[in-house]
Amino acid sequence: MLGLMSGTSADGVDAVLADFKGNPIRPKWKLLKSLSFPYPADLSKRIVDVGQNLQLCSHEWLDLAEAITEVHAQAAWACDPNHHFELVGCHGQTVWHRPPFNEKRGASLQLLQAPLLAQLLNSSVVHDFRAADLALGGQGAPLVPKLDAAIFGRLSSWRAILNLGGIANLTLIPPTSGPDRFESVMGWDCGPANSLLDLAVQKISNGQLAFDRDGLIAGRGSPYELIIERWLKEPFFHKPPPKSSGREQFGLADLTSRLRDMPSISSENMIATLTAFSAAAVAQDLANLQSIQNIRPIELLVAGGGCRNPIMLNEIRHRCLGMRVFTTAANGIPIQGREALAFALLAWWHILQFPGNAPAITGAKRSVVLGMRVDPV
User: Fold this and answer.
1) What domains are defined for the chain?
2) Cβ-contact 275, 311 below 8 angstroms
3) Are 280 and 168 in contact (CB under 8 A)?
4) Core-most of 153, 207, 336, 352, by most CB within 10 Å?
5) pTM score, two decimals?
């Protein structure tokens, strides 16, 4: 199976080649190859701009979807030039996500020309993984927690997996023994990880920098804790799961508002504050989980591009006390490969007709097989 994933950060396509066998609930899996294939800079910028409500005409939308599809094909061939894959699970590029609100149903838009991708790869492609869950009243996200449980498995106590992409999201996996062993896998979006941070770096550098490489800017500053404490009181951070989010909530408009809260601090302190804010939102969710449900993971595995920022990782370790904090590389999964591996597994589940969503996480009315399959002509 080949898995392809491009996340909220819109920096490129992560690809993995993997093999799955056995019980779909806890399969035997082997990661054969993985890589990250970057978007061209102009394409990445266009994707981010569209996620900030950039208006496009019809032919521009078509051109954008085609360009995204072509980069996905390039990533697939770079990952497996000898075409060992038998099936492709491809998430596509999210440009807008709308969770259910009041009586309005949720919706999510991923750009991908799946029939074109199937032709370019001469392989069947499973895509559009969120639609069925949304149609059943769910959030359509996060989908990965159920897959985390299948891939990572359980420990003697609760285990957590944190993804630091554009958005930070958590998975909580129950233990193998004790009264909590009967609990369901949990998961939700915590808030921004890199979405606000990257936009702020681009702003202060006049577009010369795309992100805070190695946390060098944040490392020269100090976070403004009073501002962080105030931000953490906002309704989203106290909304119980199910909850999901994206650039539509933590994007340019939100950054502009937060910058007004920091008019007189240095650029270094501002980036340090936004970095610490991402970590603090995760820590607050874990603290609330302990105070409300008496659940405290003994281990926190971290994945996503944010792992390359040592300042963010240090903030997480500092604020999530009492947990062993590692990256997923300690379990044989590259930090950029976790979600691509999950969508490879979702494609395998689709073939098996095994339900891919978790209603306890997304809020859907029932479990359902996820994805649509297209075959090359």
Assistant:
1) 2-141+336-374 (3.30.420.40), 144-331 (3.30.420.40)
2) yes
3) no
4) 336
5) 0.94
